[in-house]
Amino acid sequence: MFRFSVAALQLIELFVSSLVHLLYGFYIFSSAVAGDLSSALNDLFFNSNIGPSIRDGQLTGSANSDDDLPPIVLVHGIFGFGKGRLGGLSYFAGAEKKDDKVLVPDLGSLTSIYDRARELFYYLKGGQVDYGEEHSKACGHSQFGRTYEKGHYPQWDEDHPIHFVGHSAGAQVTRCLQQMLADKAFKGYDTSENWVLSVTSLSGAFNGTTRAYLDGMQPEDGKSMKSICLLQLLRVGVIVYDWIDIPILKYYYNFGFDHYNMSWRKAGIWGLVDCLLGNSGPFAAGDWILPDLTIQGSLRLNSRLNTFPSTYYFSYATKRTRNFLGFTIPSNVLGIHPLLFIRVLQMCQWRHPPDVPPPFKGYRDEEWWDNDGALNTVSMTHPRFPVEHPSRFVVKDSECQPLQPGIWYYKVVEGDHILFVVNRERAGVQFDLIYDSIFERCRKHAFRKIPTMPDHVQ
């Protein structure tokens, strides 16, 4: 009887979680369509004189101009989108308008950290995305993807470095890209880690999250999924969405798996069946974002990623929990987005299965209880596992000035995982304080030191 009750509660939780996520996704999608229709009707009946560059949100200062200011690249997280997707909606809630040289690339919203890093490179430099022959064969997808006729910052090199700001998984994407640059992993390009001037993380997924297991990843290996879970429903939905391949839908939103050729035009009905049965596709290969967000997956990634001595690093970790009489509980319940509330509560009570080996030596559940509904706060501060990288906790920005490269400066901010994206009004004045400090740091405090003459004071 007890087991039956537990199973019933789990099914109810799965139904509620699925419904909340589906409704929120529909809300975002319909808002984008409604915004585009409103703009089109306004142009039709009122003959708007607003220039295309302003109406489309293009940069007023060309990202390709050869001036002294490096661009700031905003990299979205899981389920995110860049400029050009979802109509006029902005993933970063309009933060890109705070500076004249900001780029917002559109990367795969569910593709792996590796694939997204490759896509980001070619978005900036131009050319056809090359996922690498070895990786492509191992995962069973095309080696080449989208072609950028002209890069958004083609002069990018060591003399023209870039500031990166990543939200959620986007922070780990920038680290992976920098490591690829250091390893000279892009054929035909003489790259180095010094192509990256600074990395700023907003709720960055550095060390994985226990939410991945709550959503359906197996804690035994961090790669496979449970038979019945939220992620299985997501898997089926993504496969069907990509298979039906309706252009207008893909124009508004794309999960990023085009290089897997899952469209009915290429895969046919048996290709659909094969993907649904788990015999092929990104989910069968494990080449998607969730395995990278487990603690085990992050350990595998972090074992290959370095913190470089000539790059500036800053991190904002978020949390919506507090300690009460020895228990970790949600804080400011009304301030937690409905999409995240259940998970905040569940992550507060997470216990690693006792019959499963811990993800790493020294793991303790209580260190992972503080969270923002998507990631654990301990995971967001800086790369910690398997080897802790140099870091420094700060309360005020003035405490880390002058900035020293090669150190992860981090702050802990009260807020849930999506407080600083999509909906600007939710964050209120905090939104401007966070992004203003990020852009000011990029423009005034993060720069390569210029050698001085002996009679000059550094």
UniProtKB/TrEMBL annotation:
Keyword Signal tagged? yes
A Gene Ontology biological process in which this protein takes part is: lipid metabolic process
**Residue intervals of the Lipase-like C-terminal domain:** 71-183
Q: Offer an example of a GO molecular function term for this protein.
A: hydrolase activity
Location in the cell reads: Secreted
Q: Give the protein's recorded name.
A: Lipase-like C-terminal domain-containing protein
Q: Which Pfam families match?
A: Lip_C
Give an example GO cellular component term for this record: extracellular region
Record lineage: Eukaryota, Viridiplantae, Streptophyta, Embryophyta, Tracheophyta
> Where is this chain primarily localised?
secreted
